[in-house]
Specification:
The complex is a heterodimer of chains A (about 220) and B (about 140). Chain A is α/β, with parallel strands linked by helices. Chain A is built from 7 helices and 10 strands. With about 140 residues, chain B is an alpha/beta fold. Chain B has one domain (about 1-135): 3-Layer(aba) Sandwich (Rossmann fold). Classes of the chains: A alpha/beta (about 220), B alpha/beta (about 140).
Chain lengths: ~220, ~140
């Protein structure tokens, strides 16, 4: 396949190397002339200096015959512009981009970028995998040595899919509200089930807060 | 009307000043605080009328009042930033009227085809100059 990579920084460099090793034809567009020289000395004559969101540069790089364009610059607006140009001006079948700000995932998806890779989300995902799945809990002291806590239900939590009333809570602990991922308040009754990313608001006593967190969010 | 103008260069200044004089509520965004010096003193000193930011992040736009704005104009000197902010205003925040400045002609046409009102000063200025020379 012919793949054009916009941005020959660190991510771009290793990506290009992996793509070459996999037997693809690769071409790189990079703004910084010193990096272009480095890329050329490593990979041969497969890089040009220029702004990857300019039509004339994409033309030079042969984007018109590319199967995939991958944008890896550090600026989301430049990545978006490069993908949109490739897709709509040069009819590239597949555009892939790295994004730095996680909120851009939705916008880029709406605008037709085929694959959006969020470095922040990847890192967060890795952390969720590696660490005990305690999601952030916010705790407020309440009189009577009690605490009010809000706890997000993280991936892997044992209470996902469970009926609220079936959850074995620590002593003197009450769930007072459950808010779903869209911010809607759930009715608390026999039919209330806990789902991923629900936020649970509970009242507990100070020395049971940790136990509550354990019940709601520790991965089994 | 509520209007957000992103980019306080010559074009942004002109648009913001004109609309403000007509009585509209104007918020101007720019990354460089000194750029606001080109605005009329009274506008510049209005609470919340100028915000230092690049207009790229959602929260910056929300702080600028994008949820209540009628018009979003992206006229900074960076094409990509204008296009992204304008598309965010249009598709994420559903701002009724969105216009952006895109210097490059081909890309301006592309954005127009995608339903985004893009204006190229390059195209307009060169057309006017050609007209002045040949008529």
């Amino acid at each position: 396949m012919y793949i054009v990579v916009v941005g020959g920084g660190r991510v771009g460099y290793f990506l290009v190397r992996a793509l070459f090793n996999a037997g693809h034809e690769v071409f790189i567009i990079e703004r910084n002339s010193r990096r272009v020289e480095e890329l050329v000395s490593h990979f041969g004559n497969v890089a040009i200096k220029g702004d990857g969101s300019e039509p004339i540069i994409q033309m030079e790089a042969g984007v018109a015959r590319a199967d995939i364009l991958i944008a890896t610059t550090g600026a989301d607006e430049d990545n978006l512009a490069a993908c949109q140009l490739a897709k709509h001006r040069f009819n590239v079948p597949k555009t892939v981009t790295l994004i730095n700000s996680p909120e851009d995932e939705r916008l880029f998806g709406l605008l037709g970028v085929d694959v959006v890779v969020s470095s922040t989300q990847l890192l967060l995902g890795a952390i969720e995998e590696e660490l005990p799945a305690h999601s952030p809990a916010h705790v407020l002291p309440v009189q009577g040595n009690r605490e009010a806590a809000t706890i997000g239900v993280p991936q892997g939590s044992p209470v996902i899919g469970k009926r609220l009333y079936d959850i074995a809570l620590p002593p003197e602990t009450f769930i007072v509200a459950v808010v779903d991922r869209d911010g809607e308040l759930k009715q608390l009754n026999e039919e209330t089930y806990i789902e991923l990313h629900d936020e649970i608001v509970a009242i507990t006593v100070a020395d049971q807060a940790e136990a509550l967190l354990e019940v709601l969010s520790t991965r089994r | 009307m509520n209007v957000i103008v992103m980019g306080c260069g010559r074009i942004g200044t002109q648009i913001a000043t004109t609309l403000w004089r007509e009585g509209h509520s104007v918020t101007v965004l720019d990354t460089v605080p000194e750029s606001f010096l080109s605005l009329p003193k009274e506008l510049r000193e209005t609470e919340g009328a100028t915000i230092v930011c690049d207009g790229i992040l959602e929260e910056e736009l929300i702080d600028a009042g994008i949820l209540d704005t009628d018009v979003f104009v992206a006229v900074s000197n960076r094409d990509n930033r204008n296009a992204m902010a304008a598309q965010r205003a249009k598709h994420i925040f559903n701002v009724p009227q969105v216009v952006c400045r895109v210097g490059d002609l081909e890309r301006q046409e592309m954005y127009n085809k995608l339903g985004l009102a893009a204006i190229s000063p390059t195209k307009i200025t060169s057309a006017l100059i050609l007209e002045a020379v040949f008529t």
